[in-house]
Amino acid sequence: MIGPALFGWLHGADFYRATHAEAVALLPTGQGRTWLDVGCGPGLVARLAAARGYTARGVDAAPGMIRKARRIARAHGPAIEYTIATLDSLPAASADVVSAGPGAGDPVHVCA
Ligand SMILES: C[S@@+](CC[C@H](N)C(=O)[O-])C[C@H]1O[C@@H](n2cnc3c(N)ncnc32)[C@H](O)[C@@H]1O
Protein backbone atom coordinates (compact mmCIF):
# COMPACT_ATOMS: atom_id res chain seq x y z
CA MET A 1 0.00 0.00 0.00
CA ILE A 2 1.24 3.50 -0.84
CA GLY A 3 2.34 5.38 2.30
CA PRO A 4 1.78 8.96 3.48
CA ALA A 5 5.43 9.94 2.86
CA LEU A 6 5.36 8.90 -0.81
CA PHE A 7 1.99 10.57 -1.16
CA GLY A 8 3.44 13.80 0.20
CA TRP A 9 5.84 13.78 -2.74
CA LEU A 10 3.14 12.76 -5.23
CA HIS A 11 0.86 15.60 -4.13
CA GLY A 12 3.62 18.06 -4.96
CA ALA A 13 4.02 16.68 -8.51
CA ASP A 14 2.43 18.87 -11.19
CA PHE A 15 0.99 15.97 -13.21
CA TYR A 16 -0.74 14.48 -10.17
CA ARG A 17 -2.31 17.74 -9.07
CA ALA A 18 -3.30 18.64 -12.65
CA THR A 19 -5.02 15.28 -13.28
CA HIS A 20 -7.11 15.58 -10.13
CA ALA A 21 -7.86 19.28 -10.68
CA GLU A 22 -9.14 18.45 -14.19
CA ALA A 23 -11.43 15.75 -12.81
CA VAL A 24 -12.88 18.06 -10.15
CA ALA A 25 -13.31 20.89 -12.68
CA LEU A 26 -15.54 18.64 -14.83
CA LEU A 27 -18.35 19.20 -12.32
CA PRO A 28 -20.25 22.44 -11.81
CA THR A 29 -19.20 24.65 -8.91
CA GLY A 30 -20.40 23.35 -5.56
CA GLN A 31 -22.39 26.26 -4.17
CA GLY A 32 -22.52 24.51 -0.81
CA ARG A 33 -23.35 21.04 -2.14
CA THR A 34 -21.56 18.15 -0.44
CA TRP A 35 -18.66 16.04 -1.76
CA LEU A 36 -17.29 12.84 -0.22
CA ASP A 37 -13.90 11.51 -1.35
CA VAL A 38 -13.52 7.81 -0.50
CA GLY A 39 -9.89 6.79 -0.15
CA CYS A 40 -8.96 10.45 0.32
CA GLY A 41 -5.29 9.87 1.06
CA PRO A 42 -3.76 13.15 2.25
CA GLY A 43 -6.83 15.00 0.96
CA LEU A 44 -6.01 16.57 -2.39
CA VAL A 45 -9.39 15.85 -4.04
CA ALA A 46 -11.25 17.04 -0.95
CA ARG A 47 -9.26 20.29 -0.94
CA LEU A 48 -9.88 20.81 -4.67
CA ALA A 49 -13.60 20.16 -4.13
CA ALA A 50 -13.69 22.63 -1.23
CA ALA A 51 -11.92 25.22 -3.39
CA ARG A 52 -14.67 24.67 -6.00
CA GLY A 53 -17.35 25.54 -3.47
CA TYR A 54 -18.29 22.11 -2.09
CA THR A 55 -18.58 21.19 1.56
CA ALA A 56 -16.00 18.43 1.37
CA ARG A 57 -15.33 15.37 3.51
CA GLY A 58 -12.78 12.61 3.12
CA VAL A 59 -12.54 9.07 4.43
CA ASP A 60 -9.59 6.71 4.25
CA ALA A 61 -8.81 3.29 5.64
CA ALA A 62 -5.27 4.32 6.64
CA PRO A 63 -4.96 6.32 9.88
CA GLY A 64 -1.64 7.81 8.68
CA MET A 65 -3.34 9.27 5.60
CA ILE A 66 -6.08 10.82 7.71
CA ARG A 67 -3.50 12.31 10.10
CA LYS A 68 -1.66 13.84 7.14
CA ALA A 69 -4.88 15.17 5.56
CA ARG A 70 -5.88 16.80 8.86
CA ARG A 71 -2.40 18.31 9.28
CA ILE A 72 -2.53 19.86 5.79
CA ALA A 73 -6.09 21.14 6.34
CA ARG A 74 -5.05 22.75 9.64
CA ALA A 75 -2.08 24.45 8.02
CA HIS A 76 -3.71 25.56 4.78
CA GLY A 77 -7.49 25.43 5.30
CA PRO A 78 -10.29 25.24 4.37
CA ALA A 79 -11.93 23.21 7.13
CA ILE A 80 -12.55 19.68 5.86
CA GLU A 81 -13.79 16.73 7.92
CA TYR A 82 -11.58 13.64 7.57
CA THR A 83 -12.60 10.29 9.05
CA ILE A 84 -11.04 6.85 9.20
CA ALA A 85 -13.43 4.53 7.34
CA THR A 86 -13.39 1.91 4.61
CA LEU A 87 -15.48 1.50 1.48
CA ASP A 88 -17.75 -0.93 3.32
CA SER A 89 -18.12 1.17 6.49
CA LEU A 90 -18.86 4.62 5.13
CA PRO A 91 -20.42 7.36 7.28
CA ALA A 92 -24.22 7.27 7.05
CA ALA A 93 -24.52 10.87 5.79
CA SER A 94 -25.23 11.16 2.08
CA ALA A 95 -23.33 13.38 -0.38
CA ASP A 96 -24.19 15.10 -3.65
CA VAL A 97 -20.90 13.94 -5.20
CA VAL A 98 -18.87 10.86 -4.30
CA SER A 99 -15.39 10.30 -5.72
CA ALA A 100 -13.14 7.30 -5.20
CA GLY A 101 -9.69 6.30 -6.31
CA PRO A 102 -8.95 3.64 -3.74
CA GLY A 103 -6.24 1.76 -5.62
CA ALA A 104 -2.83 3.40 -5.91
CA GLY A 105 -2.53 4.70 -9.46
CA ASP A 106 -6.24 4.31 -10.23
CA PRO A 107 -7.97 7.16 -12.00
CA VAL A 108 -10.49 9.21 -10.05
CA HIS A 109 -14.08 7.96 -10.38
CA VAL A 110 -16.81 10.52 -9.76
CA CYS A 111 -20.56 9.99 -9.26
CA ALA A 112 -22.83 13.01 -9.02
C1 LIG B 1 -4.77 6.76 -4.95
S1 LIG B 1 -5.06 7.17 -3.22
C2 LIG B 1 -6.36 8.33 -3.38
C3 LIG B 1 -5.88 9.74 -3.64
C4 LIG B 1 -6.73 10.80 -3.01
N1 LIG B 1 -8.10 10.79 -3.51
C5 LIG B 1 -6.14 12.19 -3.15
O1 LIG B 1 -6.91 13.16 -3.10
O2 LIG B 1 -4.91 12.31 -3.29
C6 LIG B 1 -5.81 5.72 -2.61
C7 LIG B 1 -6.21 5.78 -1.12
O3 LIG B 1 -7.23 4.82 -0.92
C8 LIG B 1 -7.11 4.28 0.39
N2 LIG B 1 -7.85 3.01 0.38
C9 LIG B 1 -7.51 1.83 -0.21
N3 LIG B 1 -8.48 0.91 -0.02
C10 LIG B 1 -9.46 1.53 0.71
C11 LIG B 1 -10.73 1.10 1.22
N4 LIG B 1 -11.19 -0.13 1.02
N5 LIG B 1 -11.47 1.98 1.93
C12 LIG B 1 -11.03 3.25 2.14
N6 LIG B 1 -9.83 3.72 1.69
C13 LIG B 1 -9.06 2.86 0.97
C14 LIG B 1 -5.61 4.18 0.58
O4 LIG B 1 -5.28 4.17 1.96
C15 LIG B 1 -5.10 5.42 -0.15
O5 LIG B 1 -4.90 6.50 0.74
Structure summarized in a few sentences:
The protein is of the alpha/beta class and 112 residues long. 38% of the residues lie in helices and 20% in strands.
Give your account of this protein's structure.
By secondary structure, the protein is α/β, with parallel strands linked by helices. It has a single domain, classed as Rossmann fold (3-Layer(aba) Sandwich). The chain is built from four helices and five strands, in the order H-H-E-H-E-H-E-E-E. It has a five-stranded mixed sheet, with helices on one face. Strand 4 and strand 5 form a beta hairpin. Helix 2 crosses helix 3 (44-51). The radius of gyration is 13 Å and the shape is globular. It binds S-adenosylmethionine. S-adenosylmethionine (SAM) is lined by residues 37-41, 43-45, 60-62, 65, 86-87, 101-102, 104, 106.
Question: What is the annotated CATH architecture?
Answer: 3-Layer(aba) Sandwich
Mean pLDDT: 86
CATH superfamily: Vaccinia Virus protein VP39
Q: Per the principal axes of the C-alpha atoms, what is the gross shape? A: globular
Total of domains: 1
Please write the CATH class name: Alpha Beta
SSE pattern, N- to C-terminal: HHEHEHEEE
Secondary-structure class: alpha/beta
Indicate the percent of residues in helices.
25-40%
β-sheet strand percentage: 15-25%
Whole-Å distance between the termini?
28 Å
Taking the sheet with the most strands, its summary is: 5 strands, mixed
Return the CATH topology: Rossmann fold
Radius of gyration: 13 Å
Strand segment tally: 5
Provide the list of bound ligands, each named once: S-adenosylmethionine
Low-confidence stretches: none
Strand order of the largest sheet: 3-2-1-4-5
Which oligomerization state do the chains in this entry correspond to? single chain
- Count of helical stretches: 4
